[in-house]
Amino acid sequence: MQVFRVDDMTCGHCVATITRALAAADRDARITIDLSRHLVMVEPAEADVQRLGAAIAEAGYTPIPVPATAAVPDKPGQGTSCCGCSG
Fold first, then answer.
1. Per-residue DSSP letters for the chain?
2. I need a surface site. Which of 27, 39, 51, 82 has the fewest CB within 10 A?
3. What is the pLDDT of residues 15-51, one digit of tens each?
4. Angle at 56 between CA 53 and CA 62, to 5 degrees
5. What is the pTM of this model?
6. Confidence label for 83 from pLDDT (cuts 50, 70 and 90)
7. Which residues pair with 54 in a beta bridge?
8. What residue ranges do the domains of the chain occupy?
9. What is the Cα–Cα distance from 46 to 27, expressed in whole angstroms?
10. Which CATH architecture best describes the domain 2-70?
11. Rounded CA gap, 40 and 29, in Å?
């Protein structure tokens, strides 16, 4: 799993933009985004970390690669929703 911290990802529009950019770079990648923690988690099918980071940067954001352990929630239920939605 590749994990990026994207501090300038602030809303649902940002999430959608980053998701589209990553899907274009690796159409079979599994993408999970935790907006509240500014984390983008990618299980790549083909692309390497440089290509995934470049896709986020080309979409206008600043990805910072972080260890996959950063994706583990600090407490149960953390990171399960954004913008008040249930999932």
1. -EEEE-TT--SHHHHHHHHHHHHHH-TT-EEEEEGGGTEEEEE-SS--HHHHHHHHHHTT---EEE-GGGGS-SSTTTTS-STT---
2. 27
3. 999 999 999 999 999 999 999 999 999 999 999 999 9
4. 85
5. 0.81
6. low
7. none
8. 2-70
9. 9
10. 2-Layer Sandwich (3.30)
11. 12
